[in-house]
Amino acid sequence: MKIVILDGRREGDACPVFDILLDALQSREADVQTFRLHDIKMGSCIGCFGCWLKTPGICVEADEGRDIAQAVLRSDTTILIGPVTFGGYSSEIKKAQDRWIPLILPDFGLFHGEVHHKPRYARYPRLIGIGIQSRANDEEAHLFKVLVGRNALNFHAPSYAADVVQATDSEASQHAQIQRILEREDAFPLGKAITSLMPGAVSTDLPADDQESMAPLDRSRRALLLLGSPKIGSPSTSGILGGYVLKQLAGYGWETTPLTLRRNLIKESGQAELLAAAKRADLILLAFPLYIDSLPFLMMKALEVMAGQLDPPSGENPKRLAAIVNNGFPESYQNAPAVAICRRFAVDTGMTWLGGLAMGAGEALFRGQAIEETQRNGPPVVHVRRALDLTGAALANGRAIPDEAIRLIRKTPIPIVPFRLWRRFFIKTANQHWRRGAAANQVGSEAMRAQPYEHDHQSAKTI
Ligand SMILES: Cc1cc2nc3c(=O)[nH]c(=O)nc-3n(C[C@H](O)[C@H](O)[C@H](O)COP(=O)(O)O)c2cc1C
What we know:
- This protein has about 475 residues and is an alpha/beta fold.
- It has two domains: about 190 residues, Rossmann fold (3-Layer(aba) Sandwich), CATH 3.40.50; about 210 residues, Flavodoxin domain (Rossmann fold).
- It has 19 helices and twelve strands.
- Strand 6, helix 5 and strand 7 form a beta-alpha-beta unit.
- Helix 5 packs antiparallel against helix 12 and helix 15 runs antiparallel to helix 16.
- Bound molecules: flavin mononucleotide.
């Protein structure tokens, strides 16, 4: 049995859980390969889709990120282990995981009643997620488990199991828990298990009269837009949506600063730039694409840096946080774990959560064009513009993103057409789009389906 462990523990994370896991695997005579992510130098995904359209099945970046993806695919079970971070993975795991998309095809299909990418290979590993919490938090533990299940769906895992271990528990109880995780098969989080994760309008966080009292802004008006799309070379949908709201805020007299997260965020200089901008801001707006069911590496890293180094809120005016997430699949609810992670970040750092917008089919709707341009010669996005107008007005007045905006941005873009029909149309046109993109690089349909990491799994099994 070939097991790959992606060890996402940070430097100095002392906890016996990892050793307990290794012991449990050794007693099963598993062939274990561990990647200690903290010590591995590799680039983060830049969302170029080269692994689908230029070098099918292989990331264009030649570093250990490729080796990890290959090892994951060839394993019988892949185990992700690390600290539960606002309900998600640590940025260490996220960096490696974002590099998994070469393992699937660009083509979309319907699986379990929702859109996912088609498998590139005939089989994928079972997925296990082990989160470690130094302080118990049930909401984040639940979120973590759902996230692992969503990853399992996206990567066609035959089964999965996920759990959160408390660092303060006795070794005996941790040991028993690890044994159970290794054997268990959890139910895939579909239907209500995922849609119920979507945080609604902020009335759940703030009583209505509290929102009223926030209305007249008696505080400074400085907004920071943190852009988490790593795309270079073409404008991102996140930039289009976030930039539009930032312009609205400027129109309402706010001082606005956009900051696009780049790889220098792993260095002190990039972190200092982020912290200086975040310190000045009264409102932080996150805008990012969904990457493997949660935040892209750089966005996750930014949250970690801010949580670790921003002073805790003092006085009556904590910073406010809102998020705009867009994803590739047409179901906007697939963004639910990402929005929930942003909300948990706000709660954990004492910021006031003002809500999140989740938009499906972001790549297909905008294709790098500004909203005004898309409205003129692209698919219908009037509802998106209205949602952003409502969002800008609410945030400018110190209020939470209204329900109406959250509802509008999730709408099926073609009026009257039911979602199922729109989804069928989406799958067909999007798959043609990928084929054209590959053809432009002289990559034909067959070459697109290359299986560079194909391997005879039966012979690899020792037990
Ligand atoms: C590494 C990677 C992982 C992705 N994972 C998902 C995903 O899990 N679900 C989804 O719906 N879309 C996923 N997408 C698609 C993006 O969310 C989508 O293309 C988005 O519109 C890009 O937004 P941007 O232009 O702001 O970067 C992924 C894209 C990349 C590059």
